[in-house]
Design goal:
It is a single chain. With 253 residues, the protein is an alpha/beta fold. It has nine helices and six strands, in the order H-E-H-E-H-E-H-H-E-H-E-E-H-H-H. The protein has one domain: 3-Layer(aba) Sandwich (Rossmann fold), CATH 3.40.50.620. The chain has a six-stranded mixed sheet with strand order 3-2-1-4-6-5, with helices on both faces. The radius of gyration is 19 Å and the shape is globular.
């Protein structure tokens, strides 16, 4: 078995487990898969497509790319890949960059504003495509880093959910890569030579310092605790309410 086959089988097994654990995909689902041009979304699409071909239930995948309008974003590279490898796709153009430049108020988060616009477009396009679910490429490390960020900077015990109802009440958002480590995705992406496209956000990296700190913290701890990532992702799903300080939790919980 080749190195590519080994990592493919590992990721596919982990995604299959997530689908089973959280009931992410059901018979007749029509799923919009968010494709940004990064390693995570390419891997997500590739694995879901492989599972779809052999799944005992029928579901559809529609690749969906959202162009925020940032100068230098090479969407044509993404479209060429989707055209060759995954024919069922939609390239959605927006003027989000122009809106952000014109409407962003001082003191307001650039990333948060951009994310709201992207979510709105994502939900709108999913509705146009008659999709009942939206798949996003957040992986295990994203879940862990979000948990730590919320604890350290927001004073909340919260991470991400593998499956939740979208804010518009019409779609279910799923994250099938919840059990997949970023290092495996990086290696898989390298082996398959995915055509990575930078988002071209004008402030990329500026507001990412805190997340990078969490990433480094986990990496440092993993040197002494090799299973720390698996332990932390398990902890998110193994909540003990009686051992927390939330006064809203009742005895029944």
């Amino acid at each position: 078995m080749t190195k590519t086959e080994k990592i493919f089988n590992r990721i596919k097994r982990q995604v299959g487990k997530a689908i089973g654990d959280f009931n992410l995909i059901e018979e007749g689902d029509r799923i919009a898969v968010g494709i940004s041009g990064g390693k995570d979304s390419y891997t997500l699409l590739d694995i879901l497509e492989a599972l779809r071909k052999k799944a005992p239930l029928k579901f559809e995948l529609i690749s969906l790319n959202i162009d925020s309008g940032f100068p230098g974003y090479h969407k044509e590279v993404i479209e060429e890949y989707l055209q060759q490898q995954h024919g069922n796709y939609v390239m959605a153009e927006t003027n989000s960059y122009q809106i952000i430049e014109e409407k962003l108020r001082p003191g307001t988060s650039y990333c948060a504003f951009c994310a709201r616009l992207r979510r709105g477009t994502l939900y709108t396009q999913a509705e146009k495509l008659d999709c009942n679910k939206i798949a996003l490429g957040h992986h295990l490390d994203d879940f862990i880093e979000t948990l730590l960020l919320n604890q350290f900077y927001s004073g909340t015990l919260a991470a991400m959910s593998a499956k939740f109802q979208a804010g518009n009440g019409k779609h279910t958002v799923i994250r099938p890569l919840v059990y997949v480590e970023e290092s495996d995705i990086q290696e898989y992406s390298h082996l398959l030579k995915f055509p990575i496209v930078n988002c071209s956000c004008p402030i990329v990296g500026v507001n990412d310092q805190k997340r990078q700190m969490m990433k480094q913290l986990v990496k440092t701890l993993a040197a002494d605790i090799p299973e720390i990532r698996n332990s932390m992702i398990s902890a998110i799903g193994n909540v003990q309410p009686h051992h927390l300080l939330d006064q809203n939790l009742t005895e029944e919980n």
